[in-house]
Design brief:
- This protein is of the alpha/beta class.
- It contains three helices and eight strands.
- A four-stranded mixed sheet has the order 1-4-3-2.
- A hairpin with a 2-residue loop joins strand 2 and strand 3.
- The protein is globular, with a radius of gyration of 15 Å.
- The model has no long low-confidence stretch (mean pLDDT 97).
């Protein structure tokens, strides 16, 4: 068994698509209309046949509550691996990304947390 798809709730699919592709560098693999929303799947440029990240609309009240409470408590909804957290931090800061946790070492990992502008905190990690 392996993970093939995972999702995060976003408050605006268009805004999320732009941020995750243009700022973070993910590649759009699918963008399919599904009623009033879309099935938007992104992949890593380094693993285009790997796990897909779905930008899931938060139109359900439970999804909105879940997303809001995690954001208010500063809890990242997911984690992305990077080669060098400090280098990625500098790159993203130059693009205007707002970090809530600057790079710091925690045991064997270095991590940082940023606001994805779509209602989530995202953690980047270097092992």
């Amino acid at each position: 068994m392996k993970i093939i798809v995972t999702s995060i709730f976003v408050d605006d699919q268009d805004k999320a698509l732009e941020f995750y592709t243009k700022t973070l560098g993910f590649i759009k693999k699918h963008d399919v209309p599904v009623g009033e929303f879309r099935w938007i799947a992104l992949v890593s440029p380094n693993e285009q046949e790997g796990t897909e990240l779905i930008l899931e609309p938060n139109n359900h009240p439970a999804a909105q509550d879940y997303q809001k409470k995690l954001f208010e408590d500063g809890i990242p909804v997911t984690m992305f691996g990077v080669e060098d957290v400090r280098e990625e931090y500098e790159r993203l800061v130059k693009l205007g990304v707002r970090f809530t946790t600057e790079p710091k070492e925690m045991g064997d990992v270095t991590l940082a947390v940023f606001d994805d502008t779509c209602g989530n905190h995202i953690q980047i990690v270097q092992k």
